[in-house]
Amino acid sequence: MLVRHRKRLVDLVAKNRLPAVYSTREYVDAGGLMSYGPDFADLFRRAATPVDKILKGAKPADLPVEQPTKFEFVINLKTAKALGLTIPPLLLARADHVVEK
What is the rounded distance in angstroms from the CA atom of residue 60 to the CA atom of residue 53? Predict the structure, then answer.
């Protein structure tokens, strides 16, 4: 539900001039300040491995539950500027993606 209404949520946070860190990149694309969370493209690619094992006869209950191994850090500089924040260069260097528009 929150992702579906992300623009509304991001606008409410911005209206109150609050810096916020979100769990997925979609919020940053909607105008949020920054996000840190699992890289869903990587999760979807990795999902093929257990599917392959199941199709080859493995029991789903015997397969281990896997945790995300790749995370994505995204910063929106336009939002930072609107909030009057300066993002330190070291933080920008660590970001996987920087949104500037």
Answer: 9
For residue 2, is pLDDT > 90?
Answer: no
For the chain, the helix, strand and coil percentages under 3-state DSSP, each to the nearest 5? 45, 15, 40
User: Distance between CA 98 and CA 64 in Å, rounded?
Assistant: 35
Yes or no: say if 63 and 53 are a contact pair by the CB < 8 Å rule: yes
Tokens of 40: 């869903």
User: What is the reported pLDDT for 69?
Assistant: 94
Cα 87 to chain centroid distance, Å, stands at: 18
Say if residue 2 is exposed, middle or buried (CB neighbours under 10 Å; 0-12, 13-18, 19+): exposed
Checking if the pLDDT of 101 tops 80, the result is no
Place of tokens 């260069």: 89
